[in-house]
Amino acid sequence: MKDILISISPWVDAGMIAPILLLMMGLVVIVARAASGRKVFLARWEWLFALLIFSVLFLAISVDVYRSHYALDRMIDIVSHKEAVIKVNGELISDKKKFVDDLKKIYQYKNSGTSPTVSYEISVKYGIEEHKYLFKRDSANKNIYWIYYPDFKYQGSIGYVNTHVLN
User: Fold this and answer.
1) Residue 150 is part of which domain span?
2) CA distances (Å), 106 to each of 11, 77, 109, 132, 165, in order?
3) Which side of the chain, N or C, has fewer Cβ within a 10 Å radius?
4) How confident is the model at residue 1 (pLDDT cuts 50, 70, 90)?
5) Of the candidates 77, 99, 129, which is a domain's last residue?
6) pLDDT value at position 38?
7) Contact in structure between 72 and 159 (CB atoms under 8 Å)
8) What is the model's pLDDT at position 19?
9) What whole-number distance in Å separates Cα of residue 61 and Cα of residue 97?
10) Do the domain assignments include residue 102?
């Protein structure tokens, strides 16, 4: 499943940008028609085109949201395993149980106005598999970390966690 999501990643990103650009161009046309005194009503083909644009945009956003939820769920499954060895920048984590409990409370939205700062590489070794994540400390709240999953090729943070374990 991960391979499929990674392979469609560029298409989802393009699928989100193209409809937005087309929508903006459509709004420019409508404003231009209104400014020139012409009717603003759209022809049948224009409505169908708008419906197609919104359908592609809805599909792209849905897949994008699914990708981030998939990445978070997978991370929690891996970290929660009793045999998982968690390291922060190469050192064993001090309180694995507390860290796992905090990760189960990941949220995907936060107030804007802050940015990620100091980076921590979190590696989770489970059996022969090793997964690496990047946690970046929030610029305003030192207990909030932005979570990135570099192997997933997801361009933004996949969530935020409030934890004292990395301090």
Assistant:
1) 82-162
2) 27, 13, 9, 17, 14
3) N
4) very low
5) 77
6) 65
7) yes
8) 66
9) 34
10) yes
- Any alpha helices (H) in the chain, and if so which ranges? 2-36, 44-80, 96-103
Which residue type, as a one-letter code, is found at position 43?
A
Phi, psi of 163 (to 5 degrees): -145, 145
| Tens digit of each residue's pLDDT (9 = 90 or more) over 67-99 | 777 777 878 888 888 888 999 999 998 888 898
Q: Render pLDDT for 121-153 as a digit per residue (tens, 0 to 9).
A: 999 998 888 888 889 999 988 999 998 877 666
Total structural domains within the chain: 2
| In a domain? residue 101 | yes
Q: Looking at the structure, do residues 35 and 98 belong to the same domain, yes or no?
A: no
Domain endpoint, select from 77, 104, 126: 77
Task: Point out which residues pair with 88 in neighbouring strands.
Answer: 91, 122
Given the structure tokens 């922060």, which residue do they identify?
Answer: 88
pLDDT band for position 39 (50/70/90)?
Answer: low
Give the integer Cα–Cα distance in Å for 48 and 52.
6
Q: Both 72 and 89 in a single domain? A: no
pTM for the predicted model, two decimal places: 0.63
| C-beta separation of 102 from 80 below 8 A | no
Q: How far is CA 157 from the centre of its chain?
A: 5
